[in-house]
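Re-run with default settings, no changes from the original entry. Doing this only to confirm the output is reproducible before filing.
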Amino acid sequence: MSIGSALRFFRSKHGYTQAEVAEKIGIKRTTYISYENSKTVPPYDLVERFAEFYGVSMQDFENEIRSKTILQMNSEVPSYQITIRENMAELTSDERMVIKYIRLLDSEEKADFFEKIKDDYLDRRFKEDSE
């Protein structure tokens, strides 16, 4: 689930219109619509304001995004696996090495590894979008 989908989910759950949320948060309605439609990503401090507005912690807000994303990713695994097999030869030697390292990790280490990568990516993405 994208941040936009999470915003739509929480807005609908609380029965607000897009205009009402934008007004209460203090942004233009068109700006809010671009966030909800995933055309742009709100800066991290604004995501914090959305979480506070809906009465959820940032952890709850992020968990909502992640849980839906994991479900979406899991539902697409079969076609993704076929794509990987077809394109395995296209991997660089560095990409192959990363896969070898990942396979050496136990399940807990893998979970930590992937969580760190997602967090780093999201932090970088939020930072880029807020600049």
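Residues 78 and 84 are 10 Å apart (CA to CA). The chain has two domains: 1-75, 78-131.
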